[in-house]
Amino acid sequence: MKRAIVLAGGGAKGSYQFGFWRAIRELGIDFQIVTGSSVGALNGALMASGLYESGLDMWSTIKTSDIIETHPTRLSEMIDTEHIAASLKSFLGDVGESAVSVKMDPFPLGGLIGKYLDEKLLRESGTQFGIMVSEYPSMKMHPVTLGEIPYGMLSDYLLASSTVYPSMEPKEIAGKRYVDGGYSDNFPVNLALDMGAEDIIGANLCANGIEAKYETDYPVRVIRPRFDLGPTMEFVPEIAKRNIALGYNDTMRSFGKFDGTCYTFAKGENEKMQAEFEKYCVDMLTKCGSVAISEKDQYHRGLAVKGLSEKRKHRIGLMKRDLAVVCAETAAEIFCVDPTAIYTAESMDRTILSAVKPFEEKEENAMALLFSTPKPLNYKLGQIGAIDRRETVAYMVGLWLSLMDEENPNRDLRTLCRFIPQEFFASLYISFLKIKGESK
Length: 440
Prior knowledge:
It is a single chain. The chain is an alpha/beta fold and 440 residues long. It has 20 helices and 12 strands. The strands form 3 sheets. Strands 1, 2, 5, 6, 7, 8, 9 and 10 form an 8-stranded mixed β-sheet that branches. Strands 3-4 form a two-stranded antiparallel sheet. A two-stranded parallel ribbon has the order 11-12. The radius of gyration is 25 Å and the shape is elongated. Residues 74-89 have low confidence and may be disordered.
């Protein structure tokens, strides 16, 4: 069976793929084919060559000036550059505006390729390697395999696959011009299939670009980031270090070595968290009126949990197993908890409570002030979006704690459940932590 690694483009976000590679190495997963587009092509060449330490050194040290030289003037001859910038931004995200307003010279990138990549080693590795570039001006996809590239011209194709037009001039090779592979297929699964892949593992950076549809009966596992990887064209060692950790964590979770859905927990922590949280959760959802007493056994399929499931993009059928960890992760994300660490239930709980504390100690809480006014409920709900989510959650934690001593359901909580389900469940989880702490 031939296994392929497929690496998407995404500029500076590409550091994530080295965390992915670290996990692949630790898991002992072998591969015979590597394909990539744009930065994925560069990472793919290093991966196919086995140059892990060399590539890790590159990502740990490179800065934007090591990749491109920028000049503040660009394309003055173009008509309606403002419209062009807007159009490009819708396609290329944070690259679009600079692609019109800034001229980028990829000369430094060529030197970087020469420093870190050994073409002879790649050709002798025995690993099949493919690159996606786009023909200019048609933007038609132009897949090319290593065997089709004349010796000594690998760096030309790698540069072509990373040429962000119009900020960079199309790369000319053998009388034809090419631009970034992201203009035709930023995640070249089809190229891997055409090269004989029967099993595919991909690292998709979720960057802007065109991704060609693919159909196959062979297994395709795609690892994607759950957190923002930073600007596409800003190469910063500190951001790269963070992205490498995220890529490693996401990959190890995908293969079941860690628990969690976007944050990372030691194996076995998910089950432990759910066992501790479930009874409290059901009791409180029932008490506030979000779950009917007759529905307690199926609470995980009710409207309350369904709202959270949709917001977190987590399958409703898995919520019976994962609700505690999803609630904890939601609270962690709202309070900006570090996503690169590997947590136990206890360490995550301590971290969340520490992050919440400053918002509980504020003299004035904007959410509390809003809900203390005699304004109609619809007005209050319309103003919530302007309030810091952390203040909203801190206020709602107080509602949960006060509900413990009340006989009547809190109507504010029941309404907020439907309107802001993530804040609702994050505050529910934090109230659970506080009650649990008091009982010790």
